[in-house]
Amino acid sequence: MAGILVYALHDDEGDFNKNSLGAISEAARLAGELGSEAAALVVGEVADDAAAALGAYGAKRVFRAKSVPEGLAQPIVDAMAKVIADQGFSYALFGGGLLGFEIGAGLTARMNAGVTMEVTAVKVADGRLVAERPVLQDSAIVDVGYVGEPGIIIGRLNAFDTDEPGAGRAEVVDVEVELSEWSSRARMRTRGEQRGADVNIEDADILVGGGRGLGEKDNFKLAEELAEALGGAVAATRAVVDAGWYPYAAQIGQTGKTVAPKLYLAAGISGAIQHKVGMQSSESILAVNKDPNAPIFEFCDLGVVGDLHKILPKLTEAVKAKKGG
Amino acid sequence: MKICCLVKEVPDAAVQKRLDPQTKRLDRSGEKNLNPFDTHGIEAAMQIREGGRADVDEIVAVTMGPESAVRALHKAVALGADRSLHLSDAALEGSDVCATGYSLAKVLESEQPDLVLLGQQSDDGECYTIGAVVADHLKMPSLTQVIKIEVEDGTLVCERQAEYGYDTVEVDLPAVISVGDAINEPRYPSLKAIMGAKKKPLDTKATGEVGIDSGEVGEAGSKTQVLEINPPPEKESGEVFEDEDTAETVAKIVAWLDERKLI
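^ inputs. structure came back:
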């Protein structure tokens, strides 16, 4: 039947993740080509209405495992494996995000199945799915096919566009899942803790992003002064947020926000894939980095190889002068 | 407590990497290095040992790879591992994530570790996944992309960033934990440690010695197949220049911003 099962992640308020909705839309499109079914799996106490509403993105059925907790991978591996085996799904599809990587990887071991991660597109060839995956800092794209079933596809962040919701409603099917012994040996103590000030970077037209190249926490003021002069806001990479230099709410990338401002000025940011996926849709990208081999220079519009500690303050002055004059 | 650190030899960051068009695999010739993310795993093991909250009897570096991979093990030992284990067999060549995870789980099974640590990603490709594959084979709880580990009464308390912010998770031992680079600053090995690394015990195992079914590994045992390699879509590359005279550089940037009506 070649059906595709998507895991739909939700937060503590019950809102589904945008990347999960994108994955359902993608599964529905592919299922249409394959002549099969797109379905979703949700865990926890998801209301009937909320589960059925995933039909608006193309899920025909939504399997709901109420007793399985949301937020940690292994119990969800148990649920995915059961539904795939019982219902005969041929593919499991995950939108971008940390949990999808973990669940997809666990499922690989559990079902002795092929997996492809960081997938940016999926196509149908000879009635089977082929995953496109960029490798080596996006310098090549490999097409990956699957031997046997199921095939596991883990998308890159924002790889799959979410369709405008339609009028469809999914049939909600409750499933009983017995957890593996080892799935209960990790327990969530606190989930989704916000650290640092709440800042809004998603609505800014201009963003100055700061990375490890700033050198130290205090140097974020260079980025802040420049952002202020330009009339924008300051964003940050995962590395500096984890280091405690800047608030989590300002983080861009794999486990942070996705932005598309008119200008993204990357200061001391190498441009690793995990950051790139969160800001590559910016209209103009300007990079300042002292390492000429930094990947950011491969996809910026204007790149300056140099010391940002010298350049940023002078640029701030020049912008102020230009605006004042 | 026994800690096994999974390590991997990867092409040096400065080496231009490419895919071999014949085998469709990464061309692994040229300068090699220990995967930088794995050095954070070894450092995490050392900090647990030195932290005094757990008795660490042994730290074992484990790798899978060709003969040259012993150099990654030597580096791991120089950074603090007590001995190392090398799974090496021509039958493993061309293994995909599924086959690699299975093989590593088998070699780890022979060690019966209380904790397996590894870097969350490798410089050469497989990101975020190997830890979780290995864990499920070993029937152990697992967490990836961890940036803080505390030992509390024989249980690990781990922190990491997930979709909605920071999660704090308790994980019972034995467990498999993959760590991010924010977890610690790996120490520099002393000259003495570097010199002594080659003298520390190193075992080499073939697939049959750790119970690996050779039909499940290598290219033949893999569940994915690289069908084609294509160049990425053409993107007009931007202008990149070196800052020689900062006043000039700034003038150039301002003109560029002005042209785009960003000022």
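Chain B has one domain: 2-221. Chain B has a mean pLDDT of 93.
thumbs up if we can close this ticket
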